[in-house]
Write a structure and sequence with these properties.
By secondary structure, the chain is α+β, with helices and mostly antiparallel strands. The chain folds into 2 domains: 171 residues, Jelly Rolls; 108 residues, Orthogonal Bundle (Arc Repressor Mutant, subunit A), CATH 1.10.10.60. The protein has 11 helices and 10 strands. The protein has a 5-stranded antiparallel β-sheet. The protein has a 3-stranded antiparallel β-sheet with strand order 6-5-8, with no helix packed on it. The longest helix is centred in the middle third of the chain and has 25 residues. The chain is globular.
């Protein structure tokens, strides 16, 4: 089975600023880089705004509608590909983690909610008026990028303003996703702890201890905020990584189980089937038949 590639910025003919930033109109981007038509990963943070056309965008095995005003945010390691109409247009830009984080002492790119969470959706929609507003910043960034002799710090400053203003528009939609916004901060903290420990620790009690609260209360936070139990929250992260390993690597499925902390492949297969309704082998075969 074909191994999914991980693309770096250098593969997009980006020779400026030590190859840590890239911006282009979407039409030119798709024409110049036809190798992105198949499912793949990136090792950078990516934003794409669609200003015309339709289609679908699949990110981490979920499909999202593409239309005018659709905006997507992808973090390193996410798998994606799209099926777009011939009249598609828009803008795409991406950069390394250090491009942003080394410039600012008091904030990080992953702190923006549209980049920091696997429970937040990667897809949002903005109005035509908002498109025009954000295009002013995008066009200015592209102008700076196109001029080799201008300072990259100007681009970072403009990019930061763009992110802040995008966050102001998108944050209310993120908050409205949850039935109990008072618990949102705790959910985000819990998510980070899960992301750091899910391979070795799948017992909900471990996370209750890490959050300095009771298991009962932490379960209530999960149910009232995101509508699932703590166990399901943990397993969502495990299954997502299992899917990524299954289609991104050529290692045996039994080794995939081991990498996820399961010594018994049969047990891992049963767990996977419980959540996905098919076995890991069936999932891998089905994905590459698309």
């Amino acid at each position: 089975m074909e191994k999914l590639p991980i693309f770096s910025i250098q593969q997009f003919n980006c020779r400026k600023f030590n190859s840590d930033f890239y911006i282009n109109d979407l039409g030119s981007h798709l024409t110049d880089h036809d190798f992105i038509s198949r499912p793949h990963k990136h090792n950078f943070y990516l934003t794409v705004l669609f200003t015309n056309g339709t289609g679908t965008h699949e990110i981490d095995f979920k499909k999202y509608e593409v239309k005018k005003g659709s905006i997507f945010f992808l973090s390193p390691g996410q798998i994606h590909h799209w099926n777009l109409s011939h009249d598609i247009d828009g803008y795409i830009f991406f950069h390394s983690k250090d491009f942003y984080n080394l410039y600012f002492n008091n904030k990080k790119i992953e702190d923006f909610p549209f980049y920091n969470s696997f429970i937040h959706k990667p897809s949002y929609s903005i109005s035509e008026e908002q498109i025009d507003f954000f295009l002013r910043y995008i066009n200015e960034i592209q102008s700076e990028y196109s001029n080799t002799y201008k300072d990259k710090h100007v681009i970072i400053d403009l990019l930061d303003i763009l992110y802040v203003k995008l966050n102001r528009v998108i944050s209310p939609e993120i908050e409205n996703t949850y039935s109990n916004n008072s618990y949102l901060h705790q959910i985000q903290k819990l998510e980070k702890i899960i992301d750091e420990n899910y391979i070795e620790h799948k017992n909900p009690s471990f996370y209750a201890d890490k959050m300095f609260t009771s298991l009962k209360h932490l379960n209530r936070i999960c149910k009232e905020t995101i509508g699932i139990t703590l166990t399901n929250f943990i397993m969502d992260r495990v299954i997502l990584e299992a899917k990524r390993l299954l289609i991104h690597t050529d290692i045996p499925i039994s080794e995939t189980a081991t990498k996820l902390g399961y010594d018994d492949y049969s047990y891992f297969s049963r767990v996977f089937k419980k959540y996905e309704k098919i076995t890991p082998k069936m999932f891998k075969t089905k994905y590459f038949e698309k």
